[in-house]
Amino acid sequence: MVRFASLVGCLSLVASCVLPAAAIGTEYVVVEQLPGVPEGWTKGEPAIRSRLMRFKLALNQEKTAEFEKRVVDLSTPGHQDYGRHMSREVVSDFLRPFDQGTEKVVAWLEGEHVPAESINVHGNWVEFEVDIAHAESILRTHFYRFYQEKVKDGEPRASVIRTLAYSVPRDIYPYVYMIQPTTRFGALASQVTVQPIIISAEDVDGDCAANVTPDCLRELYQIDDTDIQPDRRNILGISGYLDQYARYGDFEEFLHRFAPDRADANFTAVSINGGRNLQNDTRGSGEASLDIQYAFSLAYRALGVYYSTAGRGPFVPQVGQDETTDAENEPYLDQLHYLLGLPDDELPAVLSTSYGENEQSVPEKYAYTVCNLFAQLGARGVSPTFPANCPFVTAVGGTYGIKPEKGISFSGGGFSQYFSRPAYQEASVSGYLDKIGNTFEGLFNAGGRAIPDVAAQAINYIILDHGSYAKTGGTRLVFPLFVLILPLLLTVTMASGGDIRSLVSELQNALNRHQFEVVSDLLSRAKRALLLQNALIPTPSTSPELVSAAREILEVGALASIRQTDAPTFTRYYQQLQPFYDLERDSTGAGKVDFKTSQRSKVTGLYLLLLLSMGDSTSFHTVLEGLVEEASLKGKSVEDDPFIKYPVELERNLMEGSYDKVWRETNSERVPSEEFALFSSVLVGTIRSEIADCSEKAYPSLPISNAKNLLFLESEGAVIEFAQQRGWVLRDGRIYFPVEPEAAARSEKDILVASGTIIENAVGYARELETIV
């Protein structure tokens, strides 16, 4: 059967809720409605009306389809965007709500007297907290307590407060996708199918057909000589729910017995929404033990994190109420929101979650919402392993036997009713469908997402729980094995073009946001990766993809240094880029290197402007002559390129002494980019300082109005500010310079003529301009 991995419950058709009458004059529209009480649940008494509940409202998103296509593209090997993961900010921008959606929903809630302090907005979610009586009025529904019909021996009977339908005003409906907890009945359930059987310490040894241990798995899947290289980005996350605690004592003893060469493996427990990791709890923790012991003994050296989420439905406690068996909220929604709120460099590279439920027990909108959240994690570089029917995760199934392995009976599988088949499954699934023909026609959705994607051993695993050895089985056993494979792949990828391409995307995003500390950190990582691939300098053996990525990384470094007015660093990047630009000049020897994204003209133009600002006329003309020769061979003029034309025009004006033209040029629309504008303003500032120095030597004073034109300042206020910075005295509309008095007084006409002479003669183009940066 298809499993929506991470919850449990089934739908059947029974009664529905009775909705209260809508307010006069307001038309309400049903957002979600179940056909009846889900299978496995019984409707009980009305919910206590004074009880508080916290609701999560998902807003409709503007670019969902475009976003999901982008996620598929960046996950598809061979696509030009493969590996170009998005940042948190880019994902948020993609998935922003429709215009005014958030404002209208918040205004609606406030109009329904929801306290403003209980309303929280983050991204395309709005959370609010009200008592049940208030919620029934807002959503035009009734809440009841529903009881689970089947429970394990000795366990309390679980219950939830839910409804079968809810509505919102028609004018709000276009903005609201889903509100929970309302119609979502499922509860998280482990994927362990075979209950653990206690065995003695002597019985844990034997062949791999009878007892599966870490060494057995390494040998079977030929990964016995492979280890993960330490990397702070290679974080392996394990989801913990249902009060399952990862016990350090059992973990250490398990390593000592089955992986002594990895005895220093470790993990960190992270609490989400009050989740705990108790070490002395007497309840069984076999599921957490399995996940931790196999994941971190196999994925040795990966940074292990156990995300413990309060998993039995946290709610706002009320005096006198028993909260031990309630499950009002969705613990894994809490986990998802926590992870999506993390900075990009703190996200796990792999997230293993060994829970599941039948797809038909999950409301369709809920399924799509959760799948979209996992797509957001995938877009940022996380490889999740549930929910299985979501096309943006890797669904895992179980096998048994060795040479050959066969699908095991309790492994979930099939075709999703909700999600269509993604393109990456087309070849494999089409072959399977051709093979079975019309055998099961009408019994499944042949166009649905197929499950699982991968499968591995799922029976006879040895675990250690509370000091006792046990043997167990289930599809959750496959998760820690498969998550070993992903970090190993990531270890290879992190030194390859795929990960470097992802770093290029991160670098460009950080540069565009002017996050220069992030840029610096990413540049260090990227250059180390290039060094490992011997790609910092292009050679005939360097792949075209790496050549392009390396050039883009160095170009980001050059532009970042310009934006920080760091001339020495920019010069170093310019020099490092020359071997790549030499390839571009001689494109016949560049093979399949992609030059479409090259910023050679921009970087070269900026270098010319830097040389101009520093007064290095010799180097300026040396670079320019090379560009002129290259352009002439192509039958073009060097000034056809706006990035080159700009510094050439400035240099021409400077040599002619036409500083008014320099001023106009630096303030015109012809400034090619932000970086050029920065250097242009610094250049003009340096010229202004030179004119000021000469003015101090030539005159005792000048009218403020003349100084404005002389110094290329936009207003008399700017003149006054500049004068104060120079220590000039302002009195009676004039500027008095700190120089010895001169006897002759000049007329206004004389001053203007002299001003022109100063501009023409006082600015030494190559003199003392190295102080620009």
UniProtKB/TrEMBL annotation:
Signal peptide: 1-23
Reactions mediated catalytically: Release of an N-terminal tripeptide from a polypeptide
Catalytic activity, EC: 3.4.14.10
UniProtKB keywords: Calcium, Glycoprotein, Hydrolase, Metal-binding, Protease, Proteasome, Secreted, Serine protease, Signal, Virulence, Zymogen
Entry cofactors: Ca(2+)
Main location: secreted
Location of the protein in the cell: Secreted, Extracellular space
One Gene Ontology molecular-function label: tripeptidyl-peptidase activity
Descriptive protein name: tripeptidyl-peptidase II
UniProt organism field: Aspergillus campestris (strain IBT 28561)
Upper taxonomic lineage: Eukaryota, Fungi, Dikarya, Ascomycota, Pezizomycotina
